[in-house]
Here is the input.
Amino acid sequence: MMTIKDWIYLGITVASYLLAIIAGVYAKDKAKINRATRAGQALDVVGKLASYAVHEADYTGMDDDKKRAFAAQVIQQGLNYIGIKNMTANVINGAIEKAVNAMHLANLADSGLSQNVDEKDILQPVDQLKAGSESEQNKDVTANVK
Here is the structure.
């Protein structure tokens, strides 16, 4: 028969093994987590560089293809300066497209596209409880009517 002391030792041993297993799984997955985090940070950097490059290219007066090549070159130079290597052209071009779209949306918002609307043209919410008649509002809906 096991004593209380034996049960405590058994519990400590089992808990130690479980802790070791959990630590091992975490250590194995930590490398994946770090890689995913670094990749996300690199993509954030590409996006920020693309925003700067697209705004700079917009002021050069070049045609669209030359602006794209200029922006890609600026991004690649920025990545090399930071130390990020082997960024694919597709990622850079996608970041350029996203930055161009964001810039165009911002320009539309600044161009006065929005306008003031008269108060009478704005739909107002309707209180549906007041829409019915008095008799309908006071009607007992729990009554079993056949």
User: Anything to note?
Assistant: The two ends are 72 Å apart (CA to CA). The helical segments are 4-58, 64-82, 89-110, 128-131, 134-137.
